[in-house]
Amino acid sequence: MCGNAAMNEWRTLKASVRGAAHDRTGLPNQDAVRVSRFNDARSFIVAVADGHGSAKCFRSQRGALLAVVMAKQVCAQLFKLGSPSQIKRWAEEELPKGLVRCWREQVDQLIKRQPFTPKELEPLDAASRQQVETHPYLAYGSTLLVVIVAPGFILYLQLGDGDLLTVSAAGEVERPIPKDPRLIANETTSLCSDQAWNEIQVRFQTLAGAPPALILAATDGYANAFRDEAGFEQVAGDLWALLRDGGDAAVKPHLKNWLNEASQQGSGDDISVGLIWRPMALPGMPQSPRLE
Amino acid sequence: MAKRPGGELATRPLHFIWLTDCSGSMSIDGKIQALNNAIREALPHMQTVADENPNAEVLMRVLKFSSGAQWHVSQPTPVADFKWVDLQTDGVTDLGKALSLLAEQLRIPPMTDRALPPVLVLISDGCPTDDFHKGLQALMNEPWGKKAVRIAIAIGEDADTEVLQKFIGYPELQPLQANNPEALVRHIKWVSTAVLKAASSPASQAVGATASGLNVPIPVPLAKTDPSIAGDVW
Predict the structure, then answer these.
(1) Structure pTM?
(2) What is the dihedral of CA A286, A290, B1, B3, to 10 degrees?
(3) Is A4-277 a domain of CATH 3.40.50.620?
(4) ipTM computed for the complex
(5) What is the C-alpha separation between A115 and A108, in angstroms, rounded?
(6) Is B12–A224 a contact, with Cβ atoms under 8 angstroms apart?
(7) Beta B56-66 vs B12-21: how paired, if at all?
(8) Closest partner residue to A223 among B1, B4, B114, by Cβ?
(9) Is B192 within a domain?
(10) What is the CATH number of the domain that holds B35?
(11) Which domain holds residue B43?
């Protein structure tokens, strides 16, 4: 079990950069990343979202932001439950529907306050316009990746493309949720998909043994920047080695530059990353929880 | 700056594959020479489009079919290094074999899941003489075959447009008809530029969210500039 003392050892970092392709075309960064603590002050959430950039998803920047904000609201209900088995069951059975419902309710409110404008709809052809008008969630389409670290468990959740990686203290890299082989050619499952809750993958991990040393959540622009899968997985191992040996200072000042380099020389896409790591009781390291 | 974490960075590959009919009928009325000329002329335009998106690596190949099918250019070649070697004609129209051969190269591996949607351009003047459906099924069984941007150009009135439409797979996108060299040049230029550009920078989108089912928004084909200039010769 990972007790309070162990919880105090977790650290987080985050960064998000506008993609090189968006720089060239003047489009904004349509990703969002958020790290925040729950009311118990011992548990926290890292959420990463990638708003779809297609013409029909003209409000996806807001859709992604909405996703990372509402993820915490919905996931907070986990802490009203008792046993780990209750939490696991609720996370697997109720949380996916709760997330999609909440996101859609908030999208509905946004559209009510700010209906689609002629300027937003003008670039769309007739078929696309009709599609957005009958299915307005499309305009806000986004993926969502969530990691919750709590005293007794870690919860991983994924809807759509993007990557979750863990690194053990020995440097072994794993995927807590396997890649979905259907998601190629820039197509992804999404919060705006029909019955999106059925596409959400959840992995509940009770902290009975050693927790991961590092957890990485990233939008797909990061993995797509590397020549192969091994090159991307090496990111997680390298980051762990840097953080273990040099602490935040070895990564934090450089993280945005690294992401920019990956976008410019690789995918061209927006890249957002959330990192959770557990220092190995290094001398001089502060012991209180710290959220970036 | 500290050493960047991770392995080698790389832009995303975009495989652009010409599927060319080299049956005997393509030698009639200069069709094959017109095709050779049209693709050769399009190369500088493709290079320009490729240069505009440095995050996509455009890699070209050519697959030819007549009596059997074989790779005319088998190595995925960066468009900047690509040299067009004239196609010759002989034999029948084994399109099914060509699609089966193509399907083998669209498997993962050798393809990677990080690639951009491939562009497959089928050019034919006749009817398949082998089992076209078997070849098409093999292609569509591969995830990248299904997700590829599939364009077809019919040369002359004898081309089997029904077959070409089945290859495309989307009723909204129809075969381009080329009944003279000028039209062929126009269509080749369109796929080499507008379609390539669309495929090289596709925005992500939700599965099934497109009205047509196409995962890359295909622009409208170039309009014929002056109908009086060129009459039908094929």
Answers:
(1) 0.93
(2) 90
(3) no
(4) 0.92
(5) 10
(6) yes
(7) parallel
(8) B114
(9) yes
(10) 3.40.50.410
(11) 24-117+141-200
